[in-house]
Amino acid sequence: MNISNIDHIGIRVTEKKAALDFYKILGFQLEQEVDFDAVIIMKNKSGVEINLINNGKDISNGKNILMDVPEKHPGFTHVAFGVESVLHVMEVLEKNNIPISQGPVTFGRDGHVSIFIRDPDRNTIELRGRVEDESKIPGLTFYDPKG
Fold it and tell me: 1-57, which class in CATH?
């Protein structure tokens, strides 16, 4: 078997409009609403595809079961999207009142800088850039896995 790429990312959501509005800010556009399922297909200009699965129920009192509780449950904890400019991302997030849950952080010698945010359902999203002068990124710290 040879897996060549990630085809799409499925993200379960509880409220369609809030999810659509949020992911549009991140550059995704509505491609299709599947009429026989609760799936909303979105793509960005680079061809990255996400599928919003609009049948979620908030049974965890506003917490992400994989990230916000002391017990560590198995599952995908976050998705990381590559970005061209962390500085531009910070401006877009601020303009749209999207709080940064962690970051900007560096991981050391690999040259990556990441910002972590949460979508309306508290799914964790990492926005990661590489080609940028780290000295120009305000508030940059070394990554702390404890948040």
Answer: alpha beta
